[in-house]
């Protein structure tokens, strides 16, 4: 059956299969994933588990209609995951880019931000580190009085040891804040953070976490610059 390729990289590719409904076919190549597949931690296996885990936590996901893998002599050749298109939905990155988040005013935008904050808190309270919690990986359907969020494309998320969870939470929230920045007002970002922290007034602990989140990308940029300077010195020396 003819499929329209949407994305393709060395780790996976997504194509649209148009039948009575549209379906997204995500293919994972076996090469580079065989050992992880034997250990049960390949991107395909984690994505299937994470979709099930999201639903168990009460978070909506695109409907998983089929999945499976093909092995030869015990070695993974390819794995495939098929989900049904969520009708009347757009990824949150597109919504932000088209500046339609505030289409129903501040109240409508805050409903979306509240749902997003509660979902993130739900994941983190369950000890889950998403690792790619970005607007592009969240679908928004807002044709009902209450907005609906659908979570997808999470092949790297997992439950880290407790002593590593805090760093994962900071990274998740930093990615989310970076994706919303410039499209959402500061006061509404603060509103979302208060919902996430379940407080009306920020405590010192809340403020400390907020500083870590805001400093995350700045620290990464400084680290990259420092490594680049070190490489340049090595090449010159």
Order of helices and strands: EEEHHEEEHHEEHHH
Whole-number tally of structural domains? 2
What structural category characterises the helix and strand content? alpha+beta
* Gyration radius over CA: 20 Å
Instruction: Give the helix tally.
Output: 7
Share of residues in helices: 40-55%
Largest beta sheet: strand ordering: 1-2-3-5-4
Describe the main β-sheet briefly. 5 strands, antiparallel
Instruction: Provide the CATH topology of the largest domain.
Output: Transferase(Phosphotransferase), domain 1
Would you report the number of β strands? 8
Poorly predicted tracts of residues? none
* Proportion of strand residues: 15-25%
Query: How far apart lie the N and C ends?
Result: 57 Å
Shape descriptor reads globular
What is the residue-averaged pLDDT? 91
CATH hierarchy class name of the largest domain: Mainly Alpha
Characterization of the model:
There is one protein chain. The chain has 237 residues and is α+β, with helices and mostly antiparallel strands. It folds into two domains: 4-84, 2-Layer Sandwich (Phosphorylase Kinase, domain 1); 90-225, Transferase(Phosphotransferase), domain 1, CATH 1.10.510.10. The chain has seven helices and eight strands; from the N terminus they run E-E-E-H-H-E-E-E-H-H-E-E-H-H-H. The chain has helices at residues 34-39, 43-56, 92-97, 105-125, 162-180, 186-197, 204-236, and strands at residues 4-8, 13-18, 22-29, 64-72, 75-84, 90-91, 138-141, 148-151. Strands 1-2-3-5-4 form a five-stranded antiparallel β-sheet. The protein has a three-stranded antiparallel β-sheet with strand order 6-7-8. The radius of gyration is 20 Å and the shape is globular. The mean pLDDT is 91.
């Amino acid at each position: 059956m003819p499929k329209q390729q949407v994305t393709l990289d060395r780790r996976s590719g997504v194509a649209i299969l148009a039948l009575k409904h549209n379906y997204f076919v995500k293919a994972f190549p076996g090469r580079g994933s065989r050992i992880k597949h034997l250990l049960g931690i390949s991107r395909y296996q984690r994505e299937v588990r994470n979709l099930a885990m999201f639903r168990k936590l009460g978070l909506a996901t695109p409907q998983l209609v089929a999945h499976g893998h093909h092995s030869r002599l015990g070695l993974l050749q390819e794995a495939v995951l098929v989900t049904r298109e969520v009708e009347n939905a757009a990824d949150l990155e597109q919504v932000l880019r088209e500046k339609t988040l505030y289409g129903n005013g501040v109240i409508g935008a805050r409903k979306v931000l509240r749902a997003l904050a509660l979902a993130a808190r739900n994941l983190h309270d369950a000890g889950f580190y998403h690792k790619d919690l970005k607007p592009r990986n969240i679908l928004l359907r807002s044709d009902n009085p209450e907005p609906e969020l659908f979570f997808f494309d999470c092949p790297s998320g997992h439950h880290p040891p407790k002593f590593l969870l805090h760093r994962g939470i900071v990274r998740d929230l930093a990615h989310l804040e970076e994706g919303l920045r410039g499209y959402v007002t500061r006061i509404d970002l603060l509103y979302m953070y208060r919902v996430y922290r379940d407080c009306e007034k920020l405590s010192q602990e809340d403020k400390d976490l907020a500083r870590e989140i805001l400093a995350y990308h700045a620290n990464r940029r400084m680290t990259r610059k420092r490594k680049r300077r070190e490489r340049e010195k090595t090449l010159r020396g």
